[in-house]
Each structure stands twice: as C-alpha cells, then as structure tokens.
C-alpha cells in the first residue's frame, strides 16, 4: 500500500508511470477479488427530493414550492419495490435529501400528514415495510446521521452509505461546491462514518471527484476513509464518482473530470486503500468500461432494470447483458451480489440487529433469496 508521501507524489507521475501503476492496481484487485466483477440489481427510491443543503452540482434537490418537490407516499414506494421484486431486484436504495424538515415548513407538513416528525423516522418505517412485505434488502443513503438515526436504521437496513465526497474545508467557502451546506461540512461527514463504525454498520462511502478539490485533498479523503476502516472494519466499499455538470446548477460551467483523471484516481484508490475494501465506479457516468477495469475496480455498484439513476437521470444504466459482455471482453466475469458484502455476513452479531439480522440469517441458511440464486 502507498504511503501518503508516495500518493502525493503521484500527482506529477507521467502517463507511462501510471501505466505501470495501473498494472499493479489490477494485480491487487485480481489477488483480493479475483477475476469476477460484481453489481447489485436494485431499485432506486428517492424518498424525498427536498433537502436542507444546496450543493452546487445537484439537480436532484427541489425547493418546496417547485412543482417537482415531493415526499413519496408509502404506496408509491411499495409499488416501485414490488415491481423491482418482479424484475429480480434484491436491493432498495433509498437515496434522499437531508433533513428537509429542519429548514422547510412544507417538509414538516408533508411528514406530519404521513404521521412522522422527521425524514429519518419515515425512512426507518419504510425500510421496515420493505422487509415485511418484500424480499428486497434496504440500503439507505440519507447523508449525515446522528447516533440515534443510526440506531433506528440499523435493525431495518442491510447497509448504509454516505459519500464522504471530500475532506477539504475549502469547498465550504463562498463560491465553492459545498457553500452553505451544513451536511457537507467535512467534520460532520467524518463523524457519521465514525458513528457507523462504532455501531457496527456495513458502510458504503466514496469520493466525488472534480468538484474543485485538488489531488492532495483526494489523497487525504481516501486516507481518512482508510483510517476509519482500520479502526472499525466497516467500510465495505468506496465509490469513486465523477462530477457531471448539470444545466441550471451553480456548477453548470465547471469542467468535468476526464477519463484519464478518473482512471488515475481509481488507481490511487486501489493502491492506497486496504485491499479488502471493494472499489466501485458507476458504469453510467462514462462509457469506457475497460479503462475502469484496467484501473483495478471490482464492482459496478447498483444497476437497475427499472428505475432511473435519479441523481444522474440523463445517464441511462447500461443493460446488464451489455455490461456483462463488455466485462467479458476484458477477461472478467460478472456476478450479482447483495447490498451487503459476504464478509460482513460472517459477523452477524457485530453487523446486524433485529429484523434485518433475521432476514440475513435466513438467506445464509438458504431460505429466501440465496446469493446463489442471483442472476
Ligand atoms: O444509482 C446510484 N447508486 C448509488 N449508490 C448505490 C450503490 O451503487 C450500491 O447500489 C449500493 O451501495 C449497494 O452496495 C450509492 C450508495 C451510497 O451508499 C452512497 C452513494 C451512492 C451513490 C449512488 C448513485 O449516485 N447512483
Ligand atoms: C449520492 C451522491 O451523488 C453525488 N452527486 C450529486 N450530484 C452529482 C453530480 N452532478 N455529479 C456526480 N455525482 C453527483 C453526491 O456525491 C451524492 O452524495
Ligand atoms: S447532493 Fe444530496 S445533500 Fe447535496 S443538495 Fe443534493 S440531495 Fe442535498
């Protein structure tokens, strides 16, 4: 594994040097993850698109008053879940705006009508319903979480996630991507990762590249994730996600990272992080699958046969079969996985509680949806 000094020095490395490093990264992946990449067949449920933050790159968020601002009803959620189940999905990714009730009366009213006072309460209830009424496993991506939030969500979700994005405090200054976003203050994101570790939650995180950060700040963000994983052993995967510029946002004219930047960052992540951490890059935000595989990724993340990627709705998911053939062209297999990685299922007492523990124990015994039955 690289030291911080070595990682920082890579900023100056030539394309030829990166070619050699890419071979090393791919070798680390082959040793620890084998020659089969994974993906999770999932549905995406944007429980609410109202959010107390205003990230400069986000088109998901809608201000109350806009005709598109909403909180999904339980029936709407369950309709997506059941349709996903019919199509063979095994994961429900709840991805939502952060604590809109703390900023907007309209969000408080919408929640009150549903019988809740916070979005996390409503989220926990919907996770519980998903477990009671379907075979899918909830994975929640609700941003920063308090100790109580995690305690509430752990018994009803297989795993949780929150992109660290970046640890740089520069990005919260006026004119930067995270200006006036209380949930993007680095220490808040780091505390969420820490709390998840303390409470034993299999956790997905990652970095968002191209939002104004520099190479050293990427290195420090990955090192932060690695330190937390050393302490708690709970980081199941790290997503390296590339910023996409969206019309109508504050960052509409901000340059997007190119493929070379993405590849260099994937190589950095693979050589810097503990090799037991899965490295994922989304296949719908660039189309050069082979370049990512060569850079050492072992996972394509969630792919949906049903729902849009609501965060990047203009980027269609590849068909699973076309991803399989592109992956095969590079000499790798493609296999479905669950929202929680197999390693964590070996330590149920630490990582699972309540109804989700019972469901995962059932899967391990072979009733319900065994991984072997995955497509
Ligand atoms: O479809 C998506 N899936 C996203 N995922 C889901 C991911 O692809 C996997 O499906 C899950 O992490 C299950 O392992 C996230 C999960 C997180 O915990 C945090 C952030 C993301 C980001 C995305 C995303 O932008 N689009
Ligand atoms: C779920 C994750 O999606 C990411 N996200 C939000 N907006 C964009 C965008 N324009 N481009 C790429 N990623 C984005 C954020 O990092 C969030 O945490
Ligand atoms: S990226 Fe997440 S936190 Fe930021 S505005 Fe969008 S929904 Fe809110």
Automatic annotation (TrEMBL):
Enzyme class: lyase
Span of domain Radical SAM core: 37-282
Pathway linked to the protein: Cofactor biosynthesis; coenzyme F0 biosynthesis
InterPro entries in the cross-refs: Aldolase_TIM (IPR013785), CofG_family (IPR019939), Elp3/MiaA/NifB-like_rSAM (IPR006638), F420 (IPR034405), rSAM (IPR007197), rSAM_sf (IPR058240)
SUPFAM superfamilies per record: Radical SAM enzymes
Keywords: 4Fe-4S, Iron, Iron-sulfur, Lyase, Metal-binding, S-adenosyl-L-methionine
Cofactor dependence: [4Fe-4S] cluster
PROSITE patterns: RADICAL_SAM
GO molecular function: 4 iron, 4 sulfur cluster binding; 7,8-didemethyl-8-hydroxy-5-deazariboflavin synthase activity; metal ion binding; transferase activity, transferring alkyl or aryl (other than methyl) groups
UniProt key word Magnesium: no
SMART domains from the UniProt entry: Elp3
Catalytic activity: 5-amino-5-(4-hydroxybenzyl)-6-(D-ribitylimino)-5,6-dihydrouracil + S-adenosyl-L-methionine = 7,8-didemethyl-8-hydroxy-5-deazariboflavin + 5'-deoxyadenosine + L-methionine + NH4(+) + H(+)
Keyword Metal-binding attached: yes
Name of the featured protein: 7,8-didemethyl-8-hydroxy-5-deazariboflavin synthase
Species the sequence originates in: Marinobacterium aestuarii
High-level lineage: Bacteria, Pseudomonadati, Pseudomonadota, Gammaproteobacteria, Oceanospirillales
């Amino acid at each position: 594994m690289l030291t911080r000094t070595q990682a920082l020095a890579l900023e100056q490395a030539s394309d030829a040097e990166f070619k050699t490093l890419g071979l090393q990264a791919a070798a680390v992946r082959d040793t620890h993850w084998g020659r089969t990449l994974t993906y999770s067949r999932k549905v995406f449920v944007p429980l609410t698109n109202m959010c107390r933050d205003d990230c400069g790159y986000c088109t998901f968020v809608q201000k109350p008053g806009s005709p598109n601002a909403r909180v999904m009803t339980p029936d709407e959620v369950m309709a997506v879940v059941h349709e996903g189940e019919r199509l063979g999905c095994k994961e429900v990714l709840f991805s939502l705006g952060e604590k809109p009730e703390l900023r907007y009366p309209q969000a408080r009213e919408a929640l009150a009508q549903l019988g809740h006072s916070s979005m996390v309460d409503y989220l926990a209830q919907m996770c519980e319903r998903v477990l009671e009424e379907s075979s899918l496993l909830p994975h929640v991506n609700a941003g920063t979480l308090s100790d109580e939030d995690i305690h509430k969500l752990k018994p009803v979700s297989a795993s949780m996630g929150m992109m660290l994005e970046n640890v740089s405090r520069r990005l919260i200054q006026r004119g930067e991507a995270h200006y006036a976003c209380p949930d993007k203050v680095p220490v808040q994101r780091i505390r969420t990762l820490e709390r998840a570790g303390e409470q034993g939650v299999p956790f997905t995180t990652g970095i968002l590249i191209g939002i104004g950060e520099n190479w050293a700040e990427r290195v420090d963000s990955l090192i932060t994730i690695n330190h937390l994983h050393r302490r708690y052993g709970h980081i199941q995967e790290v997503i390296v996600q590339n910023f996409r510029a969206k019309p109508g946002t504050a960052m509409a004219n901000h340059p997007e990272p190119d493929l070379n930047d993405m590849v260099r960052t994937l190589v950095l992540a693979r050589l810097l992080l503990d090799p037991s951490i899965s490295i994922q890059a989304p296949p719908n935000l660039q189309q050069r699958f082979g370049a990512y595989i060569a850079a050492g990724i072992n996972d394509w993340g969630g792919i949906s046969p049903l729902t849009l990627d609501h965060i990047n709705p203009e980027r269609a998911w590849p068909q699973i079969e076309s991803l399989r053939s592109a992956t095969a062209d590079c000499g790798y297999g493609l296999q479905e996985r669950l929202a929680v990685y197999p390693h964590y299922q070996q330590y149920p007492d630490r990582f699972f509680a309540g109804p989700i523990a019972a469901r995962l124990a059932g899967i391990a015994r072979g009733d319900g949806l065994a991984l072997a039955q995955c497509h």
